[in-house]
From TrEMBL:
Family classification: Belongs to the SusD family.
Subcellular location: Cell outer membrane
Regions crossing the membrane: none
Organism field: Leeuwenhoekiella palythoae
Protein name: RagB/SusD domain-containing protein
Length: 602
C-alpha cells in the first residue's frame, strides 16, 4: 500500500483556532523510498506527520523554548567588533528570566509548529482508519504509530503549556484537556496504540519500546502535570508504573549504552544501539533544519575543511551558564571535569604539543592572516579533522578561510613536505561599522556571561555536543544527524529516580552507576561510580547526561529548582513553570468563548 502525496499546508484553524505563523513548508516528495535505500518506507500520510518534527524542534522553536529558560543555557545580545547580535527583541533574555510575553517568538513558533504537527497525525488517522478497519496490516500498524505520535505531541503540549487537545478526526473541534484529565487521556492513547506497534522499526518510528519509554516519562512527571503550580506529589503508584515500563525496555536486551558518549550525537548515529526514538534525518527524510550543532558555536568556527563544507560555521548563540558549569566543578573538586567525565569533553583536534599554549601568540594583521610563521598552525588532511566536542572552554582549533570568513579553506605544506589544510586557533576579525578591523583577536571562551549588556562574542563556555554532519554540504541547516528524543540512558535514570522516590536508594544508585561507568571508550575519562545517591545528586547527574537535549527545564520543575535564582534570572513565580499561550491563538479562537484561556501569571 504505497501512497505518494505531497506535504500539505495545514491551517492552524484545523484545531479550531488560528495563529499567525511563518511555516516554512516545502513541497516534498514523500514517496516511501529514500535515497540510496537509506530511508525506511512509510506511507505518505505518516511521512507528513513525522516530517514536520525536525522543523518543530528547530533551535529557535521548541528546542530553544526548553533550553533557554533553564539554568543550563543563556543567550545574551552579543556586542563587539561586529556590532550587536542576538538582541532579537529580547526574545531570549525574557525567556531566560522567565519574563516572556505571549508574543515571544519562541512561544508562538513552537506552538504553531506543534499544533500543525498534531493536526497532521489526526489527518493521517483519518486516512488510515478505514484501511485499518478493512484489515490492511500496514494501515493497522500505521494507525497505531499515529495514535502514539499524537499522544507524544500532546505530552509536549502538557509539559510546556499545561494542556492537551483531544481531536479524533479532522472534521471535529478539538477539546482542550488539563490536569489529571489530560494525563489520563495521554495514558489511554499510548496504551491503545501498544498492541499494534512494531517492535523492530528502529529509532525513526514509534515502536512499542518508544511508547513504554514515553509512558514512563508521563508517570514520572504526572505529579507535575496534574498540579503544575503546586508541590508535585510523586505517588508510589506512579513510580511503580515508571519502574514497570522501564523494566520492559531494559530487560528485553534490545538496546545497549554507548561506550563513546559522543557517538550518540554523530553523523552515523541512526544505528546506535542506545537510541529508542529519534527523528530520522538520513537521505530523503533530511528535509529541514537541525541546527543543534552550530547554534552555540563561535561565529569564527568552520568545523570541516574542504570545498564541500564552505557553508558550515557557527553563530555565537547560547552558552552554558556559570551555574551549570559549576555543577561539574562541584562534582569533581580538584580534578578537571574534562579529565573526570567523558561526557564533559572529547579532545579531537590533535594539536602538536609545542602549539598547545597559545598565550605567547600575538595578534596579527588580516593581510598576513596565517602566513606569518609556522608556529601558529599545523597541517592535516581534511577527512582527518574533527573539532573538540562537549563543553568548550578557552580556544578551539579549526581550519580558516583565505579571506578569514570567505573564500576557500587555506592549505599548505609543512616543513616535512606534508600537504594539508592549515589548522589554527580560532580568531576573530569582525567588521566595526564600515571599517574593517586590522587586528585579529584569538577567541578565548570565558566562563563569565550575563544579560547585563557586557557579553561579547567570546563570552561563555559553549556546547559542542552534536556533530557537524560529514555527509551534508550544509550541515548548519540540513544535518544528517538524527535528533535523539529517547535513549536507553534516560530509561535507566527514570527508573533510578522512581526507585529513589520510593525509598530504594540502593537500586537507584545501581542504575545511575550503570550509566556513568558505561561511558568507557576513553578509560581515563570514564566517570567513577558514585558511592551514594540523593535527589540533588540525581538532578545533577541528569544534567551531565542530557545537557543540550531539551531535558533540563522539565527536570528542574520536577526536582523543585526552577524557581531558584541563577545568572541574570531571579523570577520565582511558580506560574512561569508553564509558558504563555500565544495571544494570537487565543484571539483566533474568540468565536468560541472560553475555548482557550491564558495560563495564569501572564
Amino acid at each position: 500500500m504505497n501512497y505518494r502525496i505531497f506535504t500539505l499546508v495545514l491551517g492552524l484553524s484545523a484545531l479550531l483556532f488560528s495563529s499567525c505563523t511563518d511555516l516554512e513548508e516545502e513541497i516534498l516528495d514523500e514517496s516511501l523510498t529514500g535515497t540510496d535505500g537509506l530511508a525506511e518506507p512509510v506511507t505518505g500520510s505518516i511521512s507528513a506527520a513525522y516530517g514536520i518534527l525536525p522543523q518543530t524542534f528547530r533551535h529557535t522553536r521548541y528546542f530553544g523554548l526548553q533550553e533557554i529558560p533553564s539554568d543550563e543555557a543563556i543567550l545574551p545580545p552579543r556586542t563587539g567588533l561586529g556590532g550587536t547580535q542576538w538582541a532579537d527583541n529580547d526574545t531570549y533574555t525574557t525567556a531566560h528570566r522567565h519574563l516572556m510575553s505571549s508574543s515571544n517568538s519562541l512561544v508562538t513558533e513552537s506552538w504553531s509548529y506543534l499544533t500543525t504537527a498534531l493536526f497532521r497525525t489526526v489527518a493521517a488517522i483519518d486516512v488510515l482508519t478505514p484501511l485499518a478497519e478493512a484489515g490492511d496490516a500496514e494501515a493497522i500498524q500505521g494507525l497505531a504509530e499515529m495514535r502514539a505520535l499524537r499522544a507524544y505531541e500532546n505530552m509536549l503540549f502538557l509539559d510546556s503549556w499545561g494542556l492537551t487537545f483531544r481531536k479524533e478526526a479532522t472534521s471535529e473541534t478539538s477539546e482542550v484537556l488539563r490536569g489529571a484529565e489530560a494525563v489520563t487521556y495521554i495514558e489511554e492513547e499510548f496504551l491503545a496504540a501498544l498492541e499494534n506497534l512494531s517492535t523492530t522499526n528502529g529509532p525513526g518510528r514509534m515502536t512499542q519500546d518508544a511508547v513504554y519509554g514515553f509512558l514512563a516519562k508521563l508517570y514520572l512527571n504526572a505529579g507535575v502535570y496534574r498540579d503544575p503550580y503546586g508541590t508535585p506529589v510523586f505517588t508510589d503508584e506512579d513510580m511503580a508504573n515508571v519502574v514497570s515500563y522501564t523494566d520492559r525496555i531494559i530487560n528485553n536486551g534490545s538496546y545497549a549504552l554507548s561506550p563513546e558518549y559522543f557517538d550518540l550525537f554523530n553523523d552515523e548515529n541512526h544505528d546506535n544501539a542506545e537510541l529508542i526514538f529519534a527523528l530520522d534525518l538520513r537521505g530523503v527524510l533530511n528535509n529541514d533544519h537541525n541546527r543543534w550543532a552550530y547554534w552555540s558555536m563561535s561565529g569564527s568556527l568552520f568545523p570541516r575543511p574542504g570545498d564541500f563544507y564552505l557553508s558550515m560555521d557557527g553563530t555565537d548563540g547560547p552558552a552554558a551558564t556559570p551555574e551549570f558549569y559549576q555543577n561539574w566543578v562541584d562534582a569533581y573538586g580538584n580534578v578537571d571535569p574534562a579529565d573526570a567525565d567523558a561526557r564533559f569533553y572529547q579532545k579531537n583536534a590533535q594539536v602538536p604539543a609545542e602549539l598547545e599554549d597559545i598565550s605567547d601568540l600575538t595578534p596579527y594583521s588580516k593581510d598576513t592572516l596565517g602566513l606569518s610563521t609556522d608556529k601558529d598552525h599545523y597541517f592535516i588532511a581534511g577527512e582527518d579533522f574533527e573539532i573538540d566536542r562537549g563543553i568548550i572552554r578557552g580556544t578551539m582549533w579549526a581550519p580558516r578561510k583565505e579571506n578569514f570568513r570567505s573564500g576557500s579553506f587555506m592549505t599548505g605544506t609543512d616543513g616535512n613536505g606534508n600537504s594539508g589544510f592549515r589548522i589554527y586557533p580560532l580568531a576573530e576579525a569582525r567588521e566595526n561599522g564600515s571599517d574593517p578591523e586590522d587586528i585579529v583577536y584569538y577567541v578565548d571562551h570565558t566562563l563569565d556571561i550575563s544579560l547585563d549588556g557586557s557579553a561579547g562574542y567570546a563570552s561563555g563556555y559553549r556546547f559542542a555536543k552534536w556533530q557537524f554532519s560529514k555527509t551534508s554540504d550544509d550541515g548548519n541547516n540540513y544535518s544528517n544527524v538524527d535528533l535523539v528524543l529517547l535513549r536507553l540512558a534516560d530509561v535507566y535514570l527514570m527508573r533510578a529516580e522512581a526507585k529513589l522516590r520510593m525509598g530504594d536508594a540502593a537500586g537507584a544508585l545501581t542504575d545511575v552507576n550503570t550509566v556513568r561507568t558505561s561511558r568507557n571508550a576513553r578509560p581515563e575519562q570514564t566517570p567513577a561510580a558514585l558511592t551514594q545517591i540523593t535527589l540533588p545528586t540525581l538532578l545533577r547527574e541528569r544534567g551531565f547526561e542530557f545537557y543540550w537535549e531539551m531535558s533540563r527545564r522539565s527536570d528542574q520543575i520536577r526536582f523543585g529548582t526552577y524557581e531558584d535564582s541563577w545568572t541574570s534570572k531571579t523570577d520565582s513565580d511558580v506560574h512561569h513553570r508553564l509558558f504563555p499561550i500565544p495571544q494570537e491563538a487565543i484571539d483566533g479562537a474568540s468565536n468560541t468563548p472560553g475555548y482557550l484561556e491564558q495560563n495564569a501569571g501572564y
